[in-house]
Design a protein that fits this description.
heterodimer, A: Rossmann fold, six-stranded mixed sheet, two-stranded antiparallel ribbon, 29 helices, 9 strands, B: mainly beta, SH3 type barrels, 6 strands, 15% helix
Chain lengths: 642, 81
């Protein structure tokens, strides 16, 4: 334990400090990290939000320059079993080519303090100076529990600060503290705890420490008990869940439509303005049709994206997501996976990229790989614009029951389809090439908490920005390339024909059209025409590009008066034929539910699995399944007379 | 008083139980002990998930979900009053 005796460095020798923040999952580390650094990393009431280390500088308002904070993934102990835990331990031991941190802030949830102190003992055993941030002290008081940080500090020797991270209480004290880790001196009691060899000894030590502090354990959280009784009830709970989900999908259609119509009008107005004011050159049309209408067709779905993330973030923040993992764990067990895989799959409903990163919390390499391979089936937010456009065009808005229409139910059905595909594929993989025993699974169920509206707003803002950034980069780029492919080769205008007819000639003879026709044998069984085929090829880069492609094609055909959905359905006054029959439209929806069409996901699979083998495999099996599913849908829907 | 040994997976009601031992020596058992399922710790069964498995337990002030296969490693007896 000699390493615990540290010399106070002379003034000149004081170097910028690196301080690690360590704690159990869901103990409030990320909230503290954000409060100290002014960052806005995502925090959820949800174990496993931080899967990688994250660094940030202490804000200068705390009176110290040059203090770097490292937010570590949550761990229960320093004997790592999964990749994210290994990251935490390596940082503390001085891995990743960097020296060990100068000190460690151990974050302990005051409401479950007995479970947090053993980690403090383990951290102290590493020989690093430690201090304690006691979080959730407001919740402890509300549940009539008590602990005096000063008494605890006396017992442990090292500083103990009570904080309420999301309200900023105690943050100033903690901020002032972290700049001088050499002042944190462990008491004989803490040194004794650090010598404990078994978990039993550490917990016994924790009880002794708390016994010396006249601590009052909190009463059970009554609200959480009551809500659990309701929400985890086999019948009531399932009914609440299904009703909620159905309302949510219906809301995407009914509530978000006015906002979407407004954006849509804005984009069309802008494109018309460009065409009217600028001289009629190829560049002007590239701007109006390729950029504004193409990218704009994707941007109009911003309201739905905002709604989606507001709901996801609320469910995460209030603690319901962990319950969902608890409820479906049986299904996961049947599939052969554990609850942490479910949590990674859940994140994939936003986007498969963070979902695949979240698989780092899974200790078993086989389970982890299986989850990575099936995560792209989860209905990510990039599929939403495609679904919404096609459903609005081809599925009738007739009411089915109360406020629910066929459109809302179709959307819900597609989400279930993606989920079923993920689970069934996982079951196949686990029984086949990735067979292996399941490792132990335990899930901590946090108490229900009302998430702060500002946290949700910030989260939604970040996701909205990301959506717009995608529209402004990858979708814009593909859209522009596509515009050229749809407009080349040039042909001399036929004076006999109108401008629109001439444009149609160019389009029909374009490189894109040739490519689309080349693919007709592949997609002919589903009755997709070349325009859909072009969209399918282009959307290999990113799914939303499908929407941008169709918008461009229709704009170029000289039809941009009515909404894109009306045009696709052929129900407008222009009297054009519909793009697809209803059976083909359903087939296309199923294709999108299954297909692997996302460069970023393939790239992250390559990074997480260390080679091209698994991304290539994912690409092949998902697209094969997509084709089969689409064909089967077409055959069945045609037989049913759709 | 009845202090018969059983594993915590067999718990049927919310009575307070005391952990007698965690069987096994592998990574799984070690982790159960690390998260607080140690000899002598009080534990309470709260409810089963709607599909019958896993189950929720109260341990040292926290709510934890364990599958049957894990819960069977944890031997308990009725806590002394």
């Amino acid at each position: 334990m000699t390493a615990l005796v540290r010399l106070r460095p002379s003034e000149a020798a004081r170097r910028p400090g690196r301080i690690a923040i360590l704690g159990a999952p869901n103990s409030g580390k990320t909230t503290l990290f954000n409060a100290l650094t002014g960052h806005r990393a995502k925090a959820g009431n949800y174990p496993g939000v931080t899967v990688d280390r994250r660094e940030g500088d202490l804000q200068s308002r705390f009176g110290a320059d040059d203090v770097r904070l490292i937010d570590l993934p949550g761990v229960y102990s320093l004997q790592p079993q999964s990749e994210d835990e290994t990251v935490a331990v390596r940082v503390l031991e001085g891995g990743f080519g960097e020296p060990a941190p100068e000190g460690v802030v151990v974050v302990v949830d005051a409401t479950t303090i007995e479970r947090g102190l053993p980690l403090l003992a383990e951290a102290a055993a590493l020989g690093l100076p430690v201090c304690v941030a006691l979080t959730m002290i407001d919740e402890l008081k509300a549940r009539h529990g008590e602990i005096d940080p000063k008494e605890l500090q006396e017992e442990l020797g090292v500083p103990v600060v009570g904080v309420v991270g999301n309200r900023g209480l105690g943050i100033d004290d903690l901020g002032a503290l972290v700049s001088s880790p050499w002042d944190w001196t462990a008491s004989p009691s803490l040194l004794h705890g650090a010598e404990a060899r078994t978990p039993e000894d550490r917990f016994a030590w924790a009880r002794a420490v708390l016994g010396a502090c006249r601590r009052q354990a909190p009463e059970p959280n009554r609200w959480t008990r009551r809500l659990d009784r309701l929400l985890l009830h086999p019948i009531v709970g399932s009914a609440v869940f299904l009703t909620f989900v159905a309302f949510f999908f219906q809301a995407i259609f009914t509530w978000a439509t006015p906002a979407m119509d407004f954006l849509s009008g804005l984009m069309d107005g802008l494109a018309d303005q460009v065409l009217a004011t600028l001289p009629d050159t190829a560049l002007t049309r590239l701007m109006a049709d390729g950029v504004i209408r193409g990218v704009g067709a994707v941007i109009v779905f911003l309201p739905q994206i905002v709604l989606l993330f507001a709901v996801i973030l609320f469910l995460e923040g209030c603690g319901y997501m962990a319950r969902a993992a608890f409820v479906v764990d049986r299904v996961m067990g049947w599939v052969g996976l554990e609850g942490r895989c479910f949590i990674a799959l859940l994140s994939s409903y936003a986007c498969a990229v963070p979902g695949i990163m979240a698989t780092r919390t899974i200790p078993s390499p086989r389970d982890r790989l299986t989850t990575i391979l099936v995560a792209p089936f989860a209905t990510c937010s990039a599929r939403l614009p495609v679904y919404l456009l096609l459903i609005a065009a081809f599925i009738p808005a007739d009411p089915v029951l109360g406020p629910f229409t066929w459109q809302g139910l179709t959307l819900m059905g597609l989400y279930f389809l993606g989920t079923a595909a993920a689970l069934l594929s996982a079951a196949v993989f686990k029984r086949g090439l990735l067979r292996g025993a399941a490792l132990p699974f335990y899930l901590e169920l946090p108490p229900y908490r009302l998430p702060r509206p500002s946290d949700i707003a910030l989260g939604v803002w970040d996701r909205g920005k990301l959506f717009l950034r995608r529209a402004g980069t990858i979708i814009l780029a593909v859209s522009v390339v596509l515009w050229f492919l749809l407009n080349l080769p040039r042909r001399p205008a036929d004076p006999e024909l109108s401008v629109v007819e001439n444009q149609r000639m160019v389009l029909e003879g374009s490189y894109a059209a040739s490519a689309g026709r080349l693919l007709e044998p592949v997609f002919a069984p589903m009755d997709f025409d070349w325009r859909v085929n072009v969209g399918l090829v282009a959307s290999q880069a990113a799914r939303e590009v499908m929407v941008a492609t169709l918008a461009q094609i229709y704009a170029q055909e000289g039809q941009d008066e009515e909404g894109l959905g009306v045009l696709l359905a052929g129900s407008g006054e222009g009297g054009t034929a519909p793009l697809l029959s209803r059976a083909s439209a359903l087939a296309l929806l199923v294709y999108f539910a299954f297909a692997m069409q996302c460069m970023s996901t393939l790239a992250v699979i390559r990074r997480e699995t260390g080679g091209w083998r698994w991304p290539a495999f994912t690409f092949a099996y998902m697209n094969a399944l997509a084709w089969l599913g689409a064909w089967l849908t077409f055959v069945l829907a045609s037989a049913a007379g759709a | 008083m009845d202090r018969t040994l059983a594993d915590v997976a067999d718990a049927r009601d919310g009575r307070l139980l005391e952990i007698a031992e965690v069987t096994g020596t592998g990574a799984a058992s070690r982790r159960l002990r690390e998260i607080g399922f140690c000899t002598g710790a009080p534990v309470r069964f709260l409810r089963r998930a709607p599909l019958g498995d896993p189950a929720m337990y109260e341990l040292r002030g926290a709510l934890l979900s364990l599958r049957r296969s894990e819960a069977q490693r944890i031997r308990v007896h009725r806590a002394a009053p």
